[in-house]
Amino acid sequence: MTQFTLNGRPVEVGDHPHLLAALREELDVTSPKDGCSPTGQCGCCTVLIDGKASVSCQMSLERIAGKSVTTLEGVDPIERERFAAAFAATGALQCGFCTPGIVVRLKALLDKKGSDLTREDAARYLGAHLCRCTGYTKILDAVELLATGATPIVDHGGGIGSRGVKYESLELALGDRDFIDDFRVPGLLHGALRLADHARADVVSIDTVAARAMPGVEAVFTAADVPGKLRVGIIHTDWPVFIPEGGRTAYLGDVLAIVAADSREAARAAAGAVAVEYRPLRPLTDAVAALDDDEDAVWELDGNLLSHTAYKRGDVDAALAASAHQVHEVFQTQRVEHAFLEPESTLAAPEPDGTLKVYSGGQGAWDDRNQIASVLGIGAEQVVVEQVSNGGAFGGKEDMSNQAQTALASWLLQRPVKCTLSREESLLMHPKRHPIRLEYWTGCDSDGRLTALRARMIGDSGPYASVGMKVLERAAGHASGPYVLPAIDVESFAVRTNNPVCGAFRGFGANQAQFAMEGVMDRLAAEVGVSGWEIRARNVVHPGDVWGPGQVMDDGSLGASACLETIRPAYDDAVSSGKAVGLGLGIKNAGLGNGLVEIVKAVVRFSDDGAVEVRHCWTEMGQGIHTVARQVAVEELGVDPERIRVVVDTTLELGAGQTTGSRGTLMGAGAIADACHKAKEDGCRPGVDYAGEYRVDWTSSMSDGVENPTIHSAFSYAAQLVVLDRDTGLVEKVLAVHDVGRAVNPLLCEGQIQGAVHMGLGYALSEEFPSDGDGRPQNMTLRSLAIIRPKDVPPIEVVLIEKPQPRAPYGIKGMGEIGLVPTAGAVAAALHDFDGVWRSSLPMRSPVAATATAAASDE
Ligand code: FES
Ligand code: FES
To answer: Which of 406, 420, 430 is nearest to 358 (CA)?
Structure first.
């Protein structure tokens, strides 16, 4: 037993691998979060030990004996309130998973330095903390506010356009809003997965005898225990939830078994004791070669071509031949990890009425429900999925990770089971951003007006479909960026390999395509002898122009030229002051489009006491969809924002697919507004479910043979300026001008864009998730991902402009994804201006790309 003082009272704990486990698993203190234990690389578990901020996942119990530990639960209530108010008021948190750890560190810093604490100091000390959502800018705003000693004002906001604080931000800041792993349930069992040891191997046998005999183990389940279908998938059902004996692994994230035991440690130890005999096979790890390989990357699937997208307009060969200038270039982008701070977690529990309740952190509660029911071989009505706001996703939680296996264990045992992935398991399992090889041929006339584009893209999608075909379709659709091309010929291929699965990730193929397109724009500008701004201005899309796959652009496209015009003075200033400068212009669709009919529903219901429940179908993952829901209800109903509760679960049929493609705000706002209108027409009677709907049924597929298909109902636009120091090559500043149609909440919009630019700088300069010739990922810790740390993040200034999207509620365009679409191209142009070298592959690596610094106690 180990004794120490926790929040002023003596405690005694048993054996645990580290202090964090003792706090969370035995003492039920959950404000310190577990983002990476025991590696000490995210800072989420930071606590005060004898007044010093330290990561608790690296603190052995031996070292803690006799010491005084303070968590946020033990901080003075007035001080807690001040910290929470500062973070909420400045928009310094999004998903909030990193925030409690950061608040603890800031408390230690402020206790020591008081009003002397500067932004720069804080940025240095926050090197021990990762935040994947905010880009740190608004966290440092909160630091400045706290250091002044001022009392932050918390404004819960009003309707559309208000800068009110994020829904639940006060609770999130202090770690009081539970994530799934924080849930405590009587009789809970812990689940742990046994993952594959080879990326491609026949599974000869799976022996669970030794694992079952281990202390604390309740059961071990494999494919043999699955009563329903073995394979799941959002679009294609090709992803086995377990690889059975006689089956074949296809990547290192494949699952062979789940153990249920009375503690997490016991479950993990037993998972490691599941004995698997393999017959290893040659993994297919080169996407280009896999296209022609005689062998199949995936068990029981024929061929390695997942998808092919193509479209053509005009005579590209003739137009290129007649062009005054031509550029031919091959670009290569890298695989990237989402690095959301909360590893995937699922809790499943049988209900007294015979149903199974599943708490999921995924991005599509109805998809999760349907897939779980199919694995269990039961009706969808027997499964209720509650969507728990997660600690970041960025697309990486669209596919199920451990939901089906956890649900299976709970269903078969009729006991609650919780399974939370370790960071390493998370890195292995969920889909990544696609590496894509992009070959571009472009031409322009002597004035720099584009004449033709031919693009060929090959994306490494890993073994299972996920949404890989859609990512490559979106890359093809966005091949030309926001420019007008009289002749265009584009083809993209998604290829199955035995590398990590690739799927949705903020930007969804548009980033890769526009890194290439912006690259050729700058090369053409140099040939013609005009500036980067000028060549973009001469080719940017306007209303009435035919864009990309043939879509005739509506008045929403006024945003493209408006972004360029707005950024021009800053661009000219930077150039004339001798800075190295790069400009990127981007376009990104919102919604699924491509001919799909999207019907989105929402419900509002009034209680007798005047409270209002808003039910919608979207995942809150930090982006602020619950805040949008609240603001729409306030706008339409004029109710007090603090009386509004937002709920997402599958008890009503509101499902509209995944929270993806920048569609939540756009479509959710439409459905909630409609529900509010119906309520008002009926007098807002308590207890009535007022259902609203928003539908987009006017898009067409680019492969339908329609001459001018409206492939998407809405697009957002952005221009980003990257300014480098001429002497050092370091990024001095980023100016991000974004047309969002209508900024529902400008505070949250700014935060989204700053976070996305931070992610985009990492994409441009440092981040990657490579795998070796065996399909084995090489960067298996958070630190090795080379996410840019706070002290290396340049000032990111955001300017919002509003060119409304026709036919969209309030003119909203959706802006979750576009934030990093132009960034890599702008960085590449700035680096070229700095040293004269054209870059064509990512990451570009530059001194700015400093990687993780100290992680343990430093204050
Ligand atoms: S959980 Fe301790 S530093 Fe990440
Ligand atoms: S708010 Fe920091 S990781 Fe989400």
So the answer is: 406
